[in-house]
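AIM24 family protein, Paenibacillus cineris. Tokens?
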Amino acid sequence: MNLSILEHASPDSGQAVTFLLEQGEEMHFLHPEQIIAYRGPSDGRSDRLMNIKGMYRKKKLIQADMRGSCSFTAALPPGYSVKPIELAGGSDLLYDLRHLFFYSSGITMKTRILSAKNMLITHDAVKVKFAGTGTIGVLTEGMVLEAELHPDEPLYVDAGSVIAYPENAKLDLTVYGNTLASQHMNYHFKMTGVGTVLFQAGHRSSHLEKDLNNDGLIKRVLREIIPFGGVFIK
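Tokens:
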């Protein structure tokens, strides 16, 4: 598939992305309500209920099957960009459905019901896994980073920053460091196993930007030295 993606960004007017599909190409777009402009034959778009087992059926999630040749533009949530990821063959990564923007023809998407423990840790019941050859697109806040897991040496990743992790990874929800450190951080996934974890760098940037632009030094110091000061001192 020769998919072309053109990104449009402006600090004043937000962001959008334009997709160009050639004749015979097909894309499965998971947020059809974000499409704001379309050029092509009227039958080039066909919406349908997603084939998600059990857990998501009542939410009536809809995907748009887009067929080329056509072009269409989709608006992005504030602060987000689209990261294309090329797949060739099998992938053992589990993705959060909320991060997924599209996947191309040649890719199959399957659901995975999490174990009871991982449901409690991730606050989710279902993840999705891909197979085949093609392109998927994920919505991210900032750049996407990769880190290798180790079977014994844990990797700690901010829970809100994780995009995908290996299906057989071991997860625990925790904090780390001394008492002061553990009181002033989000919960992290403590991860061990084999494979690669994908996480986004921009999730925590908004908090730093707020600290730099809006807070005085005294407030920042008090929030740091008082237990749970980040909760009580705004």
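The first helix runs from residue 116 to 122.
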